[in-house]
Amino acid sequence: MKKNNALLLSTPYLLWMVAFTLIPLGVVAYYALTDPATGAFTLNNLKSLNLYWGVLWQSILYSLVSSLVCLVLGYPVAYYIAHRGRVAQKMLYMLVMLPMCMSFLLRTLAWVGLLQDTGIINNLLAALGLPRLHLIRTPGAVILGMVYNYLPYMILPLYATIVKIDPRLIQAAEDLGCNSLQVFSKVVLPLSVPGILSGTTMVFVPAVSTFYISQKLGGTDTVLIGDVIERQFKQGNNPNLGAALSLVLMILVFVCTGIMNRFGADEEGGVIA
Amino acid sequence: MSKELIRLQNLVMEFDGERILDDIDLYFNDHEFLTLLGPSGCGKSTTLRIIGGFLTPTSGKVLFDGKVINDVPPYKRQVNTVFQRYALFPHLDVYDNIAFGLKVAKLPKDEIDRRVNEMLEIVSLKGYENRRIDNLSGGQQQRVAIARALVNQPKVLLLDEPLAALDLRLRKDMQNELKRIQRSTGITFIYVTHDQEEALSMSDTVVVMDKGRIQQIGRPEDIYNEPKNAFVADFIGESNILDGTMLEDFKVRFFGRTFQCVDKGFAPNEPVDVVIRPEDIDIVPPDGGHLTGTVTSVTFKGLNYDIIVDFRGFKWLIQTTDFHAVGSVIGIRLNPEDIHIMHKSEYSGMFGDYSSYSAEYDELTEDAGDEEE
Amino acid sequence: MKRTNRILTVLIFIFLYIPMAVLIVASFNTGKDITHFDGFTLKQYARLFQDRALLKLLGNSLIISVLASFLATVFGTVASLGLHNLSPKMRSAAMTLTNIPMTNPDIVTGVSLSLLFVFVGSKLLGQRNSLTFWTLLIAHITFNLPYVILNVMPKLAQTDRSLTDAALDLGCTHTQAFFKVTIHEILPGIVSGAIMAFTMSLDDFVISYFVTGLDFITLPVEIYSYTKKPLQPKIYAMFTLLFLLIMVLMVSMNLLQLWSDRKRTTARAKK
């Protein structure tokens, strides 16, 4: 295809993306640097961010923990699926993807029903004669919610990477004297690093910015950055502060993904399997 | 009477700062089987793609029937291509693959049917109409590719190393097939290969290329018997190439001896390259020969022995049906008709010494030698 | 080691499906409380189909998802063709741009788009209601496009380049070559991209929440507003039906692919 044709076909798309991806970010920056009342340039919005460092740190902490849990739980599952037969692999892949396609709100609400003090789990415990536990409105519940919702985002990229590992590499390692543990640690694990990075990014980003999970499952002291931003826009009516917070969140995510991308990127292929 | 169909004039192709084709001048006649022969990277496939319309030359003209067609896209040229890996459409069966070009040209249904069936007959694939492509063997896929191209009745057929993926015996059969089809349809075939045996056995005309330039054009026998420079001599068959001096017409001096030969037209005492084919050398007892040397290696090849002989530091390849042990001293006799003289060129000194068969190996052993020092 | 892996995998799958099981069971519940199963009934399903308002919301969600995913698929496929043939440097820049909506948190995408629309709408065009169906559509198309492109591009990269050359050689113009040959090769990518875009749109909550106006509300946004009182069980019925729909969709897609794979291998074995 001649170069002109290629440009002709791509330019509308590029213009669209600039218009609806880059320029909006510019608008956010504009609002962040503008006084809500007068519309004049100001750094006040950014300065008031000082109040929110705690919230930001808490968000990062929660999402790091969730990512780690997702990795620990997701890796064995991805490994297992990658070593099944072709038919089983497709079916299991579908089963992992299915929850991702179902209403995220309703599934989180189901956890409320499960974890409530008068919820399903506690009812079960009581029926077995065990003491009730206070599960909901705890940090644990929020992490559980995050792990539950984002686990498939970890499993799928991991699976995609592990399944591509050439079995002949494993045979070569065995031929050269490695036992199963060594094969795993010296061959499989290093080769699955792109999937690990990919999966971790895909869990970390939504986890750090969520607000529904913390609202439904968290207590009053679990306030995440997503909550704060949402409040500014919908209740506080202070889009400028909200914009400033969004800017910070965006920079944070950008820095984190930048660090992770240093370790490997796929140009034309996708994060999606 | 031959009619000229295609002419390439001063064709230059540059890509990424590299000159892939350097001033190519070539013409192609009707009814001929012409092969572009050369090592990878010599520009033969590029030339073919330019003729097909998939590449536009950096400068120069491509003429078809006297008209310049540089800017004519592939789908408007009366040329069809058989691709190296067949490029058959996986979502269509054999019939639809072959009929593809005819359907695009919107020919009437019965005409398409007639032509496709005729083609299936010609390539011996009758009965395979409804087969899926991935259900065919390599040779069968090859024949579908040929049928798909020929059914459009092009004036010229371009073939880009079509037999490269087939195994030896099938390749030889397909070579005969292609020759037969070319003779019976009368279509000009422009064939690209790096296999010199293939080129010699199939072609009416061979064009030897290297580094984007045409090295020699001629009939297969002429190219083989009278190569123009060391590259051609080495690329086609095996050759021992030595430094010599042309004393006068029919007299050449090398290895300290004067030999009779059958070439003339060189300047007196001109330094030349002397070519002697391994199969033309007679081995005689050491005292009865023109030169004597020591055998350094013997390899049994079935048809003959490949014997490497050291003559004063220069290694010769001799092909003979007799066994001579390593270390034995032998003599050789050369007949005047078997000594072929060429002008010196940029290729002189690069080929003809049989310390190794390939240039790559030479480099490896050179580097190893350097490291040891 | 392998057995523990299998047990762990089973446990995790159970973990993934428990909440959905709770919701499905609740759809058959006579009572409203999902923690208490009072009795089996199908009347929630009946109520669902009688609730005009709810069905309208569902309709809205479907309309926006189908429209956005369709437009994104067409737009994205055409764009992929162009991007595939760009010089590596330009392609790299374009892919970075494409990745932005995917690596940006939903909330930032939602906030930035809504600020853009409000800014353009009220400051530049002087409108009062800047957030409408059209802004919602634009937003959905924007976050759907990367999914389509990231599914189609790998397929384009895998396609044998000589197939397009062969089509041109046999008389096709570039457009004809695309529709007669290329599209068949990249079709799996187009389909999976389209389906991915559709499901992302259908379930999207965060972005829609920030970008939707009062004139066109989608289901997830509405559900979010039900914060205080317990949810009406009709909604669980709808969830269950959607679950079945999506499962049927996915299973049939899988079966279709397996069937076509098997057709090829048995045919080859026969030979």
What features would you highlight for this structure?
heterotrimer, A: 273 residues, mainly alpha, MetI-like fold, 0% strand, C: 271 residues, 2 domains, 11 helices, 80% helix, globular
Task: Summarize the entry for a quick read.
With 373 residues, chain B is of the alpha+beta class. Helices cover 26% and strands 34% of the residues of chain B.
Protein model, in words:
The complex is a heterotrimer of chains A (273), B (373) and C (271). Chain A has 273 residues and is mainly alpha-helical. Chain A is 74% helix and 0% strand. Chain B folds into two domains: 4-223, Rossmann fold; 238-372, OB fold (Dihydrolipoamide Acetyltransferase, E2P) (Beta Barrel). Chain B has helices spanning 44-52, 94-104, 109-122, 138-150, 168-185, 196-202, 220-225, 230-235, 359-372; strands spanning 4-15, 18-29, 33-37, 59-64, 67-68, 79-82, 156-160, 188-193, 205-210, 213-218, 240-248, 251-254, 257-260, 270-276, 282-284, 291-300, 305-311, 314-320, 329-333, 339-343. Chain B starts with a strand and ends with a helix. Chain C has helices at 2-27, 43-50, 52-84, 88-103, 106-124, 133-158, 161-169, 174-203, 206-211, 219-225, 233-270. The two termini of chain C are 42 Å apart. The chains are: A mainly alpha (273), B alpha+beta (373), C mainly alpha (271).
Indicate the topology.
The complex is a heterotrimer of chains A (273), B (373) and C (271).
Chain A (H helix, E strand, L loop, with lengths): L2 H30 L11 H4 L5 H30 L3 H16 L2 H12 L4 H8 L11 H25 L3 H9 L4 H12 L1 H17 L2 H6 L7 H10 L4 H23 L12
Helix pairs in contact in A: 1-13, 3-7, 3-10, 4-7, 7-10, 8-9, 10-13, 12-13
Chain B lengths: L3 E12 L2 E12 L3 E5 L6 H9 L6 E6 L2 E2 L10 E4 L11 H11 L4 H14 L15 H13 L5 E5 L7 H18 L2 E6 L2 H7 L2 E6 L2 E6 L1 H6 L4 H6 L4 E9 L2 E4 L2 E4 L9 E7 L5 E3 L6 E10 L4 E7 L2 E7 L8 E5 L5 E5 L15 H14 L1
Parallel strand pairs in B: 3-8, 3-9, 6-7, 7-8
Antiparallel strand pairs in B: 1-2, 1-4, 4-5, 9-10, 11-12, 11-14, 12-13, 14-20, 15-19, 16-17, 16-19, 17-18
Helix pairs in contact in B: 2-3, 2-4, 3-4
Chain C lengths: L1 H26 L15 H8 L1 H33 L3 H16 L2 H19 L8 H26 L2 H9 L4 H30 L2 H6 L7 H7 L7 H38 L1
Helix pairs in contact in C: 1-11, 2-11, 3-6, 3-8, 4-6, 6-8, 7-8
